[in-house]
Design a protein that fits this description.
alpha/beta, single chain, Rossmann fold, about 450 residues, five-stranded parallel β-sheet, Helicase, Ruva Protein, domain 3
Length: about 450
């Protein structure tokens, strides 16, 4: 087996986590070295020259995993692991030359597969100049968000067109802005256009500009938004709402890299990166004849998908705190906080309007709160309906007790329930269960739970 005798250095200040990861990797036939401090990690890296380094980012020391990265990657590929994933961290890890970036709690299969790919890769030194990192306002550390952060980090430095898919309210424009802010074009304009909010003729004039006298009210020549985005990024939101006639004009502008103002007979070269977004299934729209196939392929060189809030429920508490910080200022209540029951209600609601709906609910509750604590009764009425409360109760009871499972199955379900409620925080989960973290790992392994 080609992985035998490969040497891996595991760096983590958490002894239990370090031991667990070491056991997982050692089971693959690899030689494992461990370091519980940055100093020891650097010393072992110099002395042993490992084939791969897997390091936690938060080492509770003067140096973090990101600080170690430039020195460690000179000798070995480095995989960074963190329990506090963010877009900023993912981009910085990528820019500093990390081979990959994985969030805790990691899946066993994922960490093993990633390690295998890293060991197989050519250890060619990569010189990637550090740049100023901007994460915008995207938050969340759910696994799907971590994957999205990594994709943003990979695509941001390129010129490729990007199609962003996602339901309304998921934050597609934030993704587009993050790509722009972390690209070589960040010092130029980011211009956003909602294609669904304008008629075809108005959209054409807004995008491409117009000449004096080209239509009633055109009293002077006017640059379009495409020209305003020269050297920067043009974000076309709700691209699926455009007419077929407009799609022809967009395709021509993309293919030729030039636009023609309404009423003009000459073309103008424009260098703008195009990012588009839609909540529609464009492949279905193409099949139904509502969207041009050639334009679809031109726009979707890279496709990113923003997960709905119901698929990243562990991020709700993080988002609530972010929105509450803003709502405190609006409500004029500096010490405002959510009660435990009110926060639980937010965590089990379906949020069809996604992050945008959650933000509105937090602001509404902040304005209604009479004291420094937001109570359940302060939440929007739709979250307090009897139908919603009964549905939530039935859901949780059926998950735990509905089919009268065996005792070991009930224990497994309760472990999953606790992990979900603690947002994957293993230390907190172990405290609630009354066990130590090592026992928690063993339980998870026994039940086939990947601590995700």
């Amino acid at each position: 087996m080609i992985y035998e005798m490969k040497k891996i250095l595991v760096v983590d200040d958490d002894k239990a986590s370090c031991e667990l990861l070491s056991e997982i990797l050692a089971a693959q036939g690899w030689e494992i070295l461990t370091a519980d401090s940055p100093e020891k990690a650097l010393l072992l890296s110099d002395r042993t020259k490992p084939d791969l380094v897997i390091s936690d980012i938060n080492l509770e020391a003067s140096l973090s995993g990101l600080d170690l990265l430039p020195r460690l990657r000179e000798k070995s590929p480095v995989i960074l692991v963190t329990g506090f994933g963010s877009l900023e961290t993912a981009i910085e890890a990528t820019r500093e030359g990390a081979w990959d970036f994985i969030s805790k709690p990691f899946k066993v299969d994922e960490i093993v597969a990633t390690a295998k790919r890293a060991l197989e890769q050519n250890h060619k030194k990569q010189e990637i100049a550090p740049e100023k990192i901007s994460s915008g306002v995207m938050v969340g550390s759910a696994p799907k968000m971590i994957e999205l952060y990594k994709e943003i980090a990979r695509v941001a430095p390129t010129r490729s067109t990007v199609l962003i898919l996602g339901e309304s309210g998921t934050g597609k424009e934030l993704v587009a802005r993050a790509i722009h802010q972390n690209s070589p074009r960040k010092d130029k304009n980011f211009v956003a256009v909602n294609c669904g909010a304008l008629t075809e003729s108005l959209l054409e004039a807004e995008l491409f500009g117009h000449t004096k006298g080209s239509f009633t009210g055109a009293n002077a020549d006017r640059r379009g938004l495409w020209e305003e985005a020269e050297g920067g990024t043009l974000f076309l939101d709700e691209i699926g709402e455009t007419s077929l006639a407009m799609q022809v004009k967009l395709l021509r502008a993309l293919q030729e890299g030039e636009i023609r103002r309404v009423g003009s007979a000459t073309n103008r070269k424009v260098d703008a990166r195009i990012i588009t977004a839609t909540n529609r299934n464009l492949e279905t729209e193409v099949k139904n004849g509502n969207f041009r196939e050639d334009l679809f392929y031109r726009l979707s060189v890279v496709t990113l998908e923003v997960p709905p809030l119901r698929e990243r429920t562990t991020d709700i508490s993080i988002l609530v705190e972010k929105f509450l910080s803003k709502a405190r200022k609006i409500a004029g209540k500096e010490n405002l906080r959510f009660s435990e029951d009110a926060l639980k209600t937010l965590q089990i609601y379906e949020w069809k309007g996604n992050v945008r709906e959650l933000e509105a609910a937090v602001e509404y509750a902040a304005l209604r709160a009479r004291g420094n604590e937001i109570l359940t009764e302060d939440l929007p009425v739709k979250l307090l309906s009897e139908e919603f409360k009964h549905a939530a109760e039935r859901f949780h009871l059926s998950q735990l007790y509905g089919d009268l499972p065996r005792l070991d199955e009930l224990e497994k379900r309760y472990l999953i329930h606790v992990l979900e409620k603690t947002a994957g925080n293993r230390t907190r989960a172990a405290e609630i269960l009354g066990i130590d973290r090592r026992t928690l790992y063993r339980m998870a392994e026994r039940f086939g739970i990947e601590l995700d």
